[in-house]
From TrEMBL:
<dbReference type="InterPro" id="IPR001279">
    <property type="entry name" value="Metallo-B-lactamas"/>
</dbReference>
<protein>
    <submittedName>
        <fullName>MBL fold metallo-hydrolase</fullName>
    </submittedName>
</protein>
<feature type="domain" description="Metallo-beta-lactamase">
    <location>
        <begin position="42"/>
        <end position="232"/>
    </location>
</feature>
<dbReference type="InterPro" id="IPR036866">
    <property type="entry name" value="RibonucZ/Hydroxyglut_hydro"/>
</dbReference>
<dbReference type="Pfam" id="PF00753">
    <property type="entry name" value="Lactamase_B"/>
</dbReference>
<feature type="region of interest" description="Disordered">
    <location>
        <begin position="258"/>
        <end position="287"/>
    </location>
</feature>
<dbReference type="InterPro" id="IPR050855">
    <property type="entry name" value="NDM-1-like"/>
</dbReference>
């Protein structure tokens, strides 16, 4: 399933979103000394490295260059024993689906209890304004189910879980060591700040907007100012920028929100090279 879905997205979504100025993924490299990023076409997956521990955040596509690009960063697939999953869309779980190459077959998956209902078949994922049902995803890894507000510790790394439903019914974001917030597909960064993620792909856009507002209130209420690290549009350390348009939707087909700095076709990753991955830290936006 994951290989078929990956190839479909690489071809069909490349045509669909070409020139829409929507996807602006980071290239492969390091954000800072703790967070590494791999680019898989339009999507980013991340690795949080602390002392000798490595935690992977999302599992991307069923992507045949993943081990190669991890090698650019000096991260071995076998070192990954824990994977945090924000949600179960193909571009976030492909490398752990049953038909994947099995790079992470021994890793434990951490996923929200609500989101896991997609994996059990209790609910079906709907996209394109609910017009299209996606096939059920099959994952055989050991799973740890998480609750909203739960705090866990993995190898001395603190992880706090925030349920932010809307894009999917059980989408989670993860605050790591009170410093890094991995947001998956909750926020889309445009040139002028953050919006609720792509409207056509949401289960419930109104709920997504409410979830963003609630997330901001929680962070500000605790005086937390993390790095906001997104799945498709880079990162920022500017909270005002991150939530600038939290009540608005990214609507690519209506041109309501777009970013002229985004590549014409983000599925073209010819500028993602080993030399660049090793040369500098990856710049943020909204500074």
């Amino acid at each position: 399933m994951s290989k078929k879905a990956t190839e479909f997205q690489r071809k069909a979504m490349s045509r669909m979103y070409r020139g829409k100025e929507i996807f602006k993924p980071l290239n492969t490299g390091w954000i800072d000394k703790n967070v590494a990023c791999v680019r898989e076409w339009v999507a980013n997956i991340f690795f949080y490295c602390k002392d000798n521990a490595v935690i992977m955040i999302d599992a991307g596509y069923n992507y045949d260059r993943l081990a190669e690009k991890m090698g650019w960063l000096g991260i071995a697939p076998q070192s990954v024993q824990h994977i945090l999953i924000t949600h179960q869309d193909t571009d976030h779980v492909g490398a752990v689906e049953a038909d994947s190459p099995g790079l992470f077959q021994n890793a434990a998956l951490y996923i929200g209890e609500v989101e896991n209902r997609y994996l059990t078949g209790e609910v079906r994922r709907k996209v394109i304004y609910h017009l299209y049902k996606l096939p059920q995803v099959t994952i055989n890894n050991k799973k740890v189910l998480l609750q909203d507000g739960e705090v866990i510790n993995i190898d001395g790394i603190k992880i706090e879980c925030f349920l932010v439903p809307g894009h999917t019914w059980g989408h989670m974001v993860y605050l790591v060591d009170d410093r890094y917030l991995f947001t998956g597909d909750t926020i889309w960064f445009g040139a002028d700040g953050g919006y609720s993620f792509i409207s056509a792909l949401a289960e419930d856009n109104e709920l997504a907007v409410r979830s963003l507002t609630a997330l901001e209130e929680k962070l500000r209420g605790r005086d937390l100012h993390p790095l906001f690290i997104t799945g498709h549009t880079g990162w920022t350390d500017n909270m005002d920028f991150a939530f600038a348009h939290k009540n608005e939707l990214c609507s690519p087909f209506r041109r309501k929100a777009h970013d002229p700095n985004a590549p014409y076709d983000a599925y073209d990753e010819s500028d993602d090279t080993e030399e660049r991955a090793k040369s500098r830290y990856l710049a943020g936006v909204g500074r």
